[in-house]
Amino acid sequence: MKAPILSGLFAKKALAPPPDIEAAALRSDRFRLARQGDWERLEQIVRTMESGRLRRLSDEDVVELPTLYRTAASSLSVARETSLDAATLAYLESLVQRAWFQVYGPRQGFFRWLGGFLGGGLSAAVREIWLEILIALAVMVAGAIAGWLLVSGNQDWFYSLVPSGLTGDRVPGASREALLKSLDTVKGPSGLSFFAAYLFQNNASVSILAFALGFAFGVPTLMILLKEMATLGAMVWLFASKGLTLQFVAWLSVHGTTELFAILLAGAAGLHVGRSMAFPGDRSILAATAESGRRAAIVMAGVVMMLIVAAILESFVRQLVGSTLDRFLIGGSMLALWCTYFFAFRRDPTGDYQ
Amino acid sequence: MTAASIRFTRDPKRERICVTPEGIALTFVVATRSARLGALLIDYMILLFGSIFISIAMGMILGGIGSLVDAKPAGAAEFVVALWVILWFVAWNGYFMIFELSARGATPGKRLTGIRVAARPASDHEGSARLTAEAVIARNLLRDIELFLPLILVMSAPSGAGGPAGLAATAWFLVFAFFPFFNRDALRAGDLIAGTWVVEAPRTKLADALSVEGAAKGASSVTGATYQFGDAELSIYGEYELQTLERMLRDGQQEALEAVHTAICTKIGWSPGAGDERAFLEAFYAQLRAKLEGDMRFGKRKADKFSA
C-alpha cells in the first residue's frame, strides 16, 4: 500500500535549478554560483546524517561525502582570500564545520563500540592502570585492617564505622544464632529483583563518586576506599568474635569478589586521573588529564557492568545458595574469571576502537 | 545561533583556529557560559518532568496491580518497582551520554541553544580529534560531583542536620559552578577530564547572491538610471562598511536604507534624492565590493574607512 502523504513529506527536496552564472556582476559571486550546487548537496547529506537517518543516505551520497567535503573546504579557503560576501563566508564556515564533524565523527555505532570494548579495550585499559590498582588495593587492605583493629580495641567504634541502616541484628553483643541467621538464605525469590536494582543503583553511585573525586588529586578517593573498607573490617571482626569468620567470608564472597573488585577499579580509575593531574610528566596538564580521563572512563564503563553482575549475584545467588562451600566456589570462580579477563586476555581491540 | 541569522560581528576572544587533517583552518567558537547554563536548565527540566511523568505512570500501573488482590500479584508489582529504579538510573545517567554520542553531539537543550560537544585539540593550532565514546562517558560521570552531590547536601543544610557539611557543600558547589570562569575555553571539570569543549554549532542557511539581482548588475528598475561610481568615491569605505551595507540590504528595512543612502551621498558629495534608495545602494555595494575584491587579489586589504 502506498502512503503518498508521508512519502511526500519525507522525500528529498528537489535542488533548485542551476543559477544563471553569467548574470552575476561580481567575479566572486560567479565563483560562488558555480559551486553552490555542490555545497547544497553536501548540506543535504550532512543534514540527513545529523538527524540520524543514515539509512536514507544512498550509496552515492556516502561515496561522495568526502569529495564534497573537500570541495567545500577548498571553496572556503578560496572564498576567504577572494570574497567579501559575509553571508557566503559564514555559510561555508558552518557547512565545512558540520561536514567535518560527520566525516571525522564517531562512525562506529554503539554495538561496534561495545564489541571493541568487551573484546580487548576494557582489559587493555585496566592493565594500563595497574599501578593505581596496586595502590588502591593496598589502601583497601589497610582500611579493612584499620577497621578491625579499631573495633577490637573499642567496640564503640563499630557504631561510627558501620551505617546503622546496614546493621539490623548485626551489632556487637548479638548472639551467635542471630548472626548466623542473618547469613541465611531467604525462602523463595520474592522481593529480590527490587533488591538487586536498589543495590546496583547504590553501588554504582559509590563507584562514580570514587572515580569523580579523583579529580581532587585522588585524595578523597583514597578516603572513600579507606572508609568503605573500615566498615567491612568492623563487620568481619563482629562475625569473627563469634567464630563465624568462615561463614561470613563465604557469604560475602559470592558477590563481594565482583563488587569489591569493581570498587577497587573505580578507585584506581579516580586515582589515575588525580595522579596525571599532579604529575603530568612532559605533557601539558590538560593533555595528560584528558588522556587519563578517557582511559579511566573505559574502566568505569566496565565497573558499571561488573556492578550489574554483582547485584544479580548478591540478590539472587547469595540468597538462594546456602552452603558455605558452594558460596566460596561461586565467589572464587567469579574472582578467577575477572582476573583472567582483565590480565590474561590480551587481544588487541579492533582497529577503529578509540 | 538560529538558522537565519548570520554572524557579521564576532567575538575574537571566543574564536579558536583548528587545522583539519586536510590543512584547512576551521574556526571553532567557544560557546558562551550563558548558552551552556541555558542548555543545562532545559535539559534538567526535560529530565525532571520526564521522570515525574514516568513515575506517575508507573504508580498508576502499580495501583492497577494492587487492585487485583485475589491474584496475589507480588511478582508483577516487584517487577514494576525494579524497572522503575533501573529506569531512573538509566535516565539520569544515560540522558546526556546518549544524546552527546549522537551525530549532533548535543542534548536537546544544547540543540536549542545552538551548541555542541566536540573534542578539544591537544594544543593551539593543532588538528582537532574526533569525539570518542570514552570522552562523553568521562565528562558526564563528573556531573555527579559537580552538581548532584553538592546540591543534595546544600538542600539538606537548612535543616541543620549537616552542620558544617552544608557550608562545605556550598563551597564545593561554588568551586565547580565557577570553574568555567577561570579558564580560557570555559571548560567545566568534566570537560577537563574528558578532553572536550563545548562550541557553537551554527546552522547557517545560504543567503542569496547579492550581485545577481537588482541594480547591482545594471540599471535601476524604478528610474532606469545606472549608477556609476568613480574610484575616488569608492575608496572612502572599507570591508567593515561593506559588510554593514550587506546586512542592511539583506534586512531590507526601508528607514535604515534611507538613512544609509543619505549618509553615503553626503560623504561622496552627491545630492541625495528620494525613492530609488535600494537601487543606489545595490549598485554602490556591487561596485565597492568589486573594487575591494580586486584589491584583495593583489594582496591589498582595507579593513574600514579609517585604514589607508
Structural account:
The complex is a heterodimer of chains A (354) and B (308). Chain A has 354 residues and is mostly helical. Chain A contains 14 helices and no strands. The relative contact order of chain A is 0.11. In chain B, the strands form two sheets. Chain B has a two-stranded antiparallel ribbon with strand order 1-2. Chain B has a two-stranded antiparallel ribbon with strand order 3-4. The radius of gyration of chain B is 29 Å and the shape is elongated. The two termini of chain B are 34 Å apart. Residues 1-8 of chain B have low confidence and may be disordered. Classes of the chains: A mainly alpha (354), B mainly alpha (308). Chains A and B meet through helix 2, helix 3, helix 4, helix 10 and helix 13 of A and strand 2, helix 2, helix 4, helix 5 and helix 7 of B.
For the structure shown, list the relevant keywords:
heterodimer, A: 354 residues, 14 helices, B: 308 residues, mainly alpha, two-stranded antiparallel sheet, disordered N terminus
Any chance you could write out the topology, listing elements then pairs?
The complex is a heterodimer of chains A (about 350) and B (about 300).
Chain A: H1 4-10, H2 27-50, H3 59-82, H4 86-103, H5 110-128, H6 130-153, H7 156-161, H8 164-167, H9 176-182, H10 192-212, H11 219-240, H12 245-278, H13 285-320, H14 324-344
Chain B: E1 15-19, E2 25-29, H1 33-66, H2 74-100, H3 108-112, E3 115-119, H4 133-141, H5 143-156, H6 164-177, H7 189-194, E4 196-200, H8 231-234, H9 239-251, H10 254-268, H11 277-297
Antiparallel strand pairs in B: 1-2, 3-4
Helix pairs in contact in B: 1-2, 2-4, 5-6, 9-11, 10-11
